[in-house]
Amino acid sequence: MPPLSLLHPDFYLAFEILGTVSFLAIVVRESAARNWRRLFEVISCAVFGMVLEIGDTYLAHTYSYSGNFLIQVMHVPLVIGVGWAVIVYCAMLLSDEYRMPWQLRPFLDALTALLLDLSMDAIAIRLGFWHWSIPLNQEWYGVPFENLAGWIFVVFSFSFLMRFLRTLNPKRVLTKVLMVLSPVIAYLGLAAELAVFSLIAILPYEINHWTTLLSFHYRPDLSVLYDPQVAMWKLILLVVLGLEVVQVSIWAMIRYGRSKAWRFDALSFSILAVMHLFFISAFFLAGIYRELPILGVIGVALFLFYDALHLLPHFIKRTPAYFFREVKESLAVQGERAGRIVETMLK
Description:
The protein has 13 helices and four strands. The chain is mostly helical. The chain has one domain. The termini are far apart.
C-alpha cells in the first residue's frame, strides 16, 4: 500500500501556504502598527527556528524532512522555521493579555504550543512531512517523548529570552548585541535543557549497565534513548514537566487574571486554530482515522482546550475583537477628519 502522503501530495503545498500566509499576515500587522520591536522578535524567532532545525537534523540524526517541500534550506523546509515564529508569536500574544509577571508567561506560551504538537506531530509523520527514527507504534504514536519535551523547551527558551530582553534598555549596545545573537542564545539554552532531560532519563539505564560508563565514545550512541527502560523514564519526566507547565499556567491565569486592556485577538487565535483544524482535517482526508482513530479524539480534545484558553475570558466579559487594531484605529481617525472636512464644506 503506498504511503498516505503519495495519495495526497497537496498536503505539502497546503501546509507551506498556511505557514507562509500566517507569517506574512503577522509581518504586515506589526509593520502597519510600526511595532518594530515585536517585528524583530518574529523575524528573530524564524531564524531561531531554522537554526534549531538544521542543528538538530545534522547533529542528532533522529529525524529528517521530506523532499517534497518546495523551499528548503540545508534539507529543512523554510516553512518550518517561519512556523516556529508563528507559533511563538501567537502564544506570546495570548499570555501578554494576562497580568501575570513576565517570568511566568513562558509557561503559558509552552502550554499553548504543546497543545498543538500533541496532535500535530503524530499526524504529520503519517502524512510523510518528516520521519523519526522509531517505528510508528512506539512512544507517542511514533513521536519520541523527548520531542514533546523539546517543544516545551523551544517555546519556553525563546519566550523567556525575548521577555527578558524587553526589560533591558534598548539603546544600550549590550542589549542590541544580545538581540542580534538571540537565535543562537536561545538555541544554546534549548540544547542545555534537552541534554539535562536526556541525561536524567538515561541515568537509570546507565546505572544498570554500569560497565558502559568505563568506555568513552566521542560520538555518543543516541539509540539508547529508545531503549524501553529509557523510554519509560522519558515518559515519566515528560508527564512531570507537562503537569508543571499546566499547573503554573492555570495558577497564574487565575491568580493574576487578565489585563484591564484585554481584547480578544482574533488574528493570533485564528492562526493557531487553523493549524489545529488543518491537521484534524488531514487526519480524516488522508484516512488516518482508519488506522488510529484515537488521534482524532486527541486532536479534537486539544483543540477545545486551546479554544478555552483563548475564549473563556471573552465569554466572561464581552470585549471587541480585532485583527489589525492599529490599522482600524488609523482608519477611524482618517474617517473623522474626512467627516469634519465634509461638514465644513457643507456649512
